[in-house]
Amino acid sequence: MSLSAETHRLMAQMHDFVRSGRDIEIPGVRPDRMLQYRRLVRNVFEDTLNRAYPISVTVLSPEEWGQLIDAFMLKAEPQTPYIWKMPFEFYEFVVNEDFAAQFNRPYLDDLLFFEWIEIDLFTMPDKPVMSFKSEGDFLKETIVLNPDHQILELEFPVHKMPASETLKHRGQYFVLAFRQRESGVVKFVEVDPVLALVWQELAATPQSGEQVVRRILKLLGRGSEEQLTTMVLPFFNDMLLQGAILGFAV
To answer: Which of 55, 60, 103, 213 is the most exposed place for a label (fewest CB within 10 A)?
Structure first.
């Protein structure tokens, strides 16, 4: 049964009130009940975002955090039907509205992104993996990566120090984030820019360490195979131990 135009109008008014808190009058509805309903809805937003961004909550003042939530409810019109995806829309909103500049917290975008990635990796379904064995030769055999990963490029090292201290360390940081297949724990490992490129090449095309070394040298146009091999082998071993590399193709 279709709703009448009047019902649509009243629903739109209620929707606007929940988002903005602006005073309205709806026949037959008590103002105190409307305020209670808005408070309950806002609590859902606040609880979800507090859980998603526990570090950001402590970095900002309660007034600033409340301002972000109110602005998000008013302007963003979240589209996802999944409550656990709301934090990503919140992150995008904060970036687009440039609250980092408004609050004089240059690191805010990086911090929210860093915290969101942990949620994203933790909740994503397992991706398919080719058959592999746990032992092999990194240089001669095809390396099988843990597919549940992402390379982050950050301007502030929020992954390794309190956010307020990162202002003195502005630069370019690459972080490999991955979810361990057995434990489900999300880990973050800072990597050299060249190693980040190595990882991206392996993720794009399964290949051996020898093949990826030659590919990277061609892309960079400098360096020697011996130097790069010496650099990547300890990295591969460490990533195998931590679970970012699963093994070798069979």
So the answer is: 55
Name the H helices within 148-208. 193-204
Residue 119 lies in a domain: no
In terms of domains, do 81 and 187 share one?
Answer: no
> Cβ of 32: how many Cβ atoms within 10 Å?
8
Number of domains in the chain: 2
At residue 11, the pLDDT reads 57
User: d(Cα 121, Cα 106) in Å, to the nearest integer?
Assistant: 25
**Residue 206 is part of a domain; what is its CATH number?**
3.90.930.50
Are 25 and 69 in the same domain? yes
pTM of the model: 0.84
Q: Six-digit token pair at 224? A: 């020697």
The amino acid occupying position 74 is: L
**Is residue 120 included in any domain, yes or no?**
no
Report the C-alpha gap between 87 and 19 in whole angstroms: 17
Is the domain of 91 the same as that of 144?
Answer: no
Q: Of 92, 88, 72, give the one whose Cα is nearest residue 80.
A: 88
Q: What pLDDT is stored for residue 42 in this prediction?
A: 79
* DSSP H helical ranges for 53-107: 54-59, 62-71, 86-96, 99-102
d(CA 155, CA 166) in angstroms, rounded, equals 9
Low-confidence ranges of the chain (pLDDT < 50): none
